[in-house]
Specification:
homodimer; about 190 residues; alpha+beta; Nucleoside Triphosphate Pyrophosphohydrolase; 2 domains; three-stranded antiparallel beta sheet; globular
């Protein structure tokens, strides 16, 4: 990114706050605007990386999860996923989260790439994984912060849920869009 | 969402904290897990909705922005966008942000739908808008927190930037994926 050096905001200092954010560590960086030279406080919510999984059964139906989401305050339809534990590889996190949230496993994993959930204030990436020919391995192993139902949806049902607005979690859509064509081209 | 009533975490109380999060108001809800009946503190980062824009010139090249992003600490390639001011309609926000960030305007706007940036802890939506046949209207009007360069990319260049990992802002990808086919189907 050196070719955009003139856009870089030079770091003038960082400070951590005890903000009890549960999921994040709050950091405030002092950054100098390269356009105005003015120094501003900028928020960073630090966390580990995340993973989510497009998990397909032998019929290419996608294993989805429904759970109450605290930000929006309603039950969402999503792909399985979670956080990468410190020191863990994202593939191992994907295998662990799929098994814990759904009881399913796979022997066929492909990396679909990573996205920045929001580079404006998050420092983490979300890694997308594809699991094919999944099979039932055990029971759900849910944490105390989880209550999850699982459901298999065909590509047609996924597309209908996306286009109808029932499935609108940006990171789930991001993963699914690398496997299925969810939208018709507009131009 | 009444059919998933059994997944709902009943609200036991909410409290606001002065956490100086700049972009957000921090709220902690006490929610009762329907599976275990245990009450837990859950984080909500409240904010207004956001918008972003796929802005196409008469040749269907996409007007993109480059800026230093404080979360990741490097210069990103994204669609123009920003926050919906209180009381503002998202279309008006889209028109305003496009003009402020790039100096361009359009008379042809179409709504592409909304996504949840992260329903686990955000309460807001990001609204995607398509602007076609954009034209230069004035100079950039940047805020003190902004330093932005603009750039036109063809669909081929967008796809290369996405598949090569240069463009990986989840919300920009979400908007672009509703206009262009960015990925080949995997299954």
């Amino acid at each position: 990114m050196d070719k955009f050096e003139e856009l870089k905001w030079e770091l003038q200092g960082s400070e951590y706050y005890d903000a009890e954010l549960i999921l994040f560590d709050k950091r405030i960086d002092k950054r100098k605007n390269p356009r105005t030279q003015k120094v501003l406080d900028r928020l960073v919510l630090e966390s580990v990386d995340w993973v989510n999984i497009v998990a397909l059964d032998p019929k290419n139906r996608s294993l989805m999860v429904r759970q109450f989401r605290f930000g929006v305050g309603y039950v969402t339809l999503e792909t399985p996923g979670g956080m990468v534990d410190p020191g863990e590889q994202s593939l191992d996190s994907a295998k662990r989260e799929l098994l814990e949230e759904t009881g399913f496993a796979s022997d066929e994993w492909s990396y679909l790439g990573a996205v920045e959930p929001n580079p404006a204030f998050h420092n983490h990436l979300c890694h997308h994984w594809l699991a094919q020919n999944i099979y039932k391995k055990g029971a759900q192993l849910l944490g105390e912060g989880e209550a999850i139902q699982i459901e298999f949806l065909s590509q047609k049902e996924i597309t209908a849920a996306v286009q109808g607005g029932e499935l609108k979690h940006a990171l789930a859509l991001s993963a699914l869009s690398r496997v299925f064509n969810l939208w018709d081209e507009k131009v």
